[in-house]
Write a structure and sequence with these properties.
This protein has 371 residues and is α+β, with helices and mostly antiparallel strands. Helices cover 23% and strands 34% of the residues.
């Protein structure tokens, strides 16, 4: 697994996920969803009132997870084209660095296609340096250097509060990993990209014998940066009797993109209960999954009944165990969804749950007529 310290060969030291940016048709309404359902708190806003004429951006935060929801205000824009093609979805995974110019130089010299040359944004609270490169599909990675900034989010944004509407957080702590879906035969291409361009390592691999059901299959490789703060599993469809969930995503998203974001919690039972009570829908595994659960995964601290009630799955590796659950898609297109994960020592990704998870996904696909 990932090393606990940055190695000498880590030419792109990352401090973690700075924020995730979504392009959406109506950022004001999307922000309300993420606040009211998922417990994110209003943080910052940029739009016509702040001098940004063509975009409206709402920023929300919960602990160390920051979401930026962006809507184009005019139809003739690259952002509007992105939404027309993909629907609402993730455009950028922004990574925090100590030197955004150096990050851009290192990655572009190694073959990355530039998305944003280094630029400095400044206001009375200091400066932020941004740069960026293209990744799979229309997804981009931004490099954010904010060590000299002390404002609410970044220059161009003002504080955004909703004093008459406040809801508690749901216990989400930080981004555990972000999963990308790529096309047929493209997984190894993007594995090489993360290895050669960004200095990541392939720490886990799963093939169609690991991730398959009677009807469908996929392959996956997990890429991690040097210190393990950033992990990007990459999925590719594999041959099966019927259409896999990755194929369904590629079809409805019209290309490659971010499939799901895994968010960590210290108390998954509390978090899932809070999210369910606010309307987030989760995949449900059959009751038979919980038969002999302790025999399969060993001793766990949690009672089985709340896990069964909520549909939370458990898996173990050599270093401990984890608990995880997956939401249904949060868009009308069957694309983006969320994973809630609690790690109790385990560094793996729930290999023992793959069959139950994918059978649950297939039930949803079948109801949509896409299996």
């Amino acid at each position: 697994m990932a090393s606990s310290s940055i190695s000498r060969t880590d030419f792109l030291p990352l401090e973690g996920t700075d924020y995730i940016e979504y392009l959406v048709g109506n950022a004001r309404q999307a922000a309300h969803f993420y606040q009211s359902v998922m417990g994110f708190q209003p943080l910052a806003y940029a739009g016509p009132e702040t001098g940004q004429r063509d975009l409206a951006c709402y920023v929300l935060r919960q602990q160390r997870i920051t979401l930026v929801l962006t809507t184009p205000l005019r139809s003739s824009s690259s952002q509007a084209d992105h939404i027309h093609r993909h629907g609402d979805g993730i455009r950028a995974i922004a990574l925090r660095v100590t030197d955004a110019a150096a990050a851009w130089k290192e990655t572009t010299q190694r073959g990355a296609r530039s998305y944003l040359e280094p630029q400095t944004l400044e206001d009375a609270d200091g400066s932020v340096v941004l740069s960026g490169i293209h990744a799979y599909g229309d997804t981009v990675h931004l490099f954010v250097e904010r060590k000299d900034y002390h404002g609410v989010f970044m220059p161009g944004f003002r504080a955004w509060q909703r004093p008459n509407y406040q809801v508690p957080e749901t216990g989400l702590l930080h981004v555990d990993h972000c999963v990308g879906n790529v096309g047929w035969g493209q997984m190894d291409t993007w594995v090489r990209f993360y290895e050669e361009v960004m200095g990541f390592r392939n720490i886990l691999s799963f093939d169609d014998t690991d991730i398959s059901t009677e009807y469908s299959a996929l392959m996956s490789k997990v890429m991690s940066n040097g210190n393990g703060y950033v992990k990007f599993p990459i999925n590719e469809p594999a041959e099966g009797k019927k259409k896999s969930q990755v194929e369904e995503y590629l079809d409805f998203y019209s290309g490659e993109g971010v499939q799901h974001v895994a968010m960590a919690t210290r108390d998954i039972i509390h978090t899932v209960r809070a999210l369910r009570s606010r309307g987030l829908e989760f995949l449900q595994v059959p009751d038979t999954y919980y038969e002999n659960l302790r025999e399969r995964v060993g001793a766990i601290e949690e009672d089985i009944e709340p896990l069964r009630e909520l549909g939370i799955m458990v898996d173990r590796d050599d270093e401990g165990y984890l608990l995880q659950i997956f939401s249904k898609p949060v868009e009308d297109r069957p694309t983006l969804f969320y994973e809630i994960i609690q790690r109790k020592g385990a560094r793996s990704f729930g290999k023992g749950n793959f069959k139950a998870l994918f059978e649950a996904l297939e039930r949803e696909q079948d109801m949509r007529g896409n299996l």
